[in-house]
Design brief:
The protein is mainly alpha-helical. It contains 4 helices and no strands.
Length: about 130
């Protein structure tokens, strides 16, 4: 990952756009983590990449508080998608009609994803430079 490479550089400052890129990649990896690929196939490393993206969002939140909201939203989406996949797998029909709703996020019952809403949480930064 490019972000991992840049993390070893002491002079690297990440723009806030980095969080957006990590979340965008993470949404793809959320879906890929549930595909049953064999070693070396396209989605076989999706779960590992998703974990790295969540970790990187945790790292950059020291500079950009919005990264905490992005991380929380990505994690909530992962949990919701895992529950959806489990419910489909246990269904005798093996498909879910909610996947055909107009709003992409309506497929996750009981959850609300609003890209226009940013939750403000306190981020404790113990690494303040003196």
């Amino acid at each position: 990952m490019l972000v991992e490479t840049g993390m070893v550089s002491p002079n690297m400052e990440w723009p806030a756009f980095t969080g957006f890129c990590l979340v965008t990649a993470g949404t793809v990896h959320i879906h890929g983590a549930h595909y049953k690929d064999t070693e070396g196939e396209l989605y076989s490393l999706s779960a590992q990449y998703l974990s790295q993206e969540l970790q990187m969002l945790s790292e950059i939140r020291r500079n950009w508080a919005s990264a905490q909201h992005q991380r929380d939203t990505l994690y909530k989406l992962y949990i919701s998608h895992t529950e959806l996949v489990s419910s489909i797998a246990s269904s005798p029909l093996r498909y879910s009609p909610v996947l055909y709703l107009e709003d992409f996020y309506d497929r996750y019952p009981g959850q609300s994803f609003d890209g226009a809403n940013v939750s403000f949480t306190d981020v404790v930064n113990n690494d303040l430079d003196e």
